[in-house]
Amino acid sequence: MRRLATTYVFFANGALFASVLPHLPTIKRQAALDDPEIGVVVAAASVGALLAGPLAGRVTRRLGAGPLAATCTLLYCAVLWSPARLASYLALITVFALFGMLDGLIDVALNTMALAVQQTHERPMINGFHAWWSIGAVSASAAAAMFTGLGVPITMMLTASAAVLAAGTLALLPAIWRHRGIGGRSGAGHVRPRRRRPGRLVLLGTVALLVAFAEDVPSTWSAVYVEDELGGSAGIAAGAYVAFVSAMTLGRLVNDRLIEHFGARRVVRAQAALLAAAFAGVAASDHPAAAIAAFAMAGVGVSVLFPTVLAAAGSDGDEFTAGNLAYLTWVGRVGFLIAPALVGAVAGLTNLSTGILLGAVAGLLLMALAGPLTRGTTP
Q: Per the UniProt record, which residue ranges are transmembrane (predicted)?
């Protein structure tokens, strides 16, 4: 039951924010926001997560991973409807900051749960759990795209999403609540303690920052770009994010086999190159279908990158793994904070196509860093 509980928490966490993202064009229109302002609203979620980050580890240890994950998931469900009813810029910033704080707490809790299950089974499983996060995001965003196309009001859609996810959490509440995460028992077969390498940790942090930036560009701007720049309908625009997350999910399902066959360095370098080409393709698109296809390419390109960073975080040995992961997660949050505001600012000064090209720059940098990133971690 611990594995099922952990799987569901990952699924629900992916579905929660993905229930909101496809509706950003509607939220932007209802509140009469411009591109820089909606960028700041979305960036507020990263600010909230950064503020919660320093407390997340302490709260997880005090309450237990399962109780914290369940409580924050239910609170998230309780406020999920609010962006649909708010027309105030400051109110939207506040709500998105709350989303981020809850997500920051859940993130630490669910990864602690995943590592505990992995230790119990004594085999790699955390990538599979993260795939379920993507499946949750795909399911929620696909439902949002479908019902938006049918003309269902945004308030009704967000309320229904919250009700479904809360019901699942309550159904599994005993199993989630008993799941305390990693305790004093250590798993077998882990890397023996060695020494921390600050230079390598800085490199991994740089990669985490770039990966988070690259992931955030489609998450925040795909629907806005297709609707506002290319004239797609709201339903078609929501499908752009669905295409991105679906492709990222499929990539994560096959990347382990690709790495086993070709090696991590080749796979990371090839997918980073694909990521750069995909963002260039988005910026050059003159039709919604072309842009959606390019966003799907970006999903494949980014799929291998953050799992590779997390795998590399353990290369200093078990003694430092938890601290390394906490640092990389925090740096990733910084990337999610920077990306919406930076792309929005560039869009305000030029146009959104130019802002999207920042993702291509991140892809090129990641391609250059593929060698040092994968050195000594995977054959």
A: 38-56, 63-81, 87-110, 131-150, 156-177, 198-214, 234-255, 267-284, 290-313, 325-349, 355-374
| Nearest residue to 45 (alpha-carbon basis) of 358, 244, 333 | 333
Just give the CATH number of 1-182: 1.20.1250.20
pLDDT tens per residue, range 178-191:
987 664 343 434 44
| pLDDT one-digit tens code per residue, 94-120 | 999 999 999 988 987 887 787 778 778
Enumerate the domain spans of the chain: 1-182, 194-379
Single pTM value for the model: 0.75
Q: What is the pLDDT of residues 329-366, one digit of tens each?
A: 888 888 887 888 899 999 999 999 999 999 999 999 99
Q: Which residue has the tokens 């859940």?
A: 106
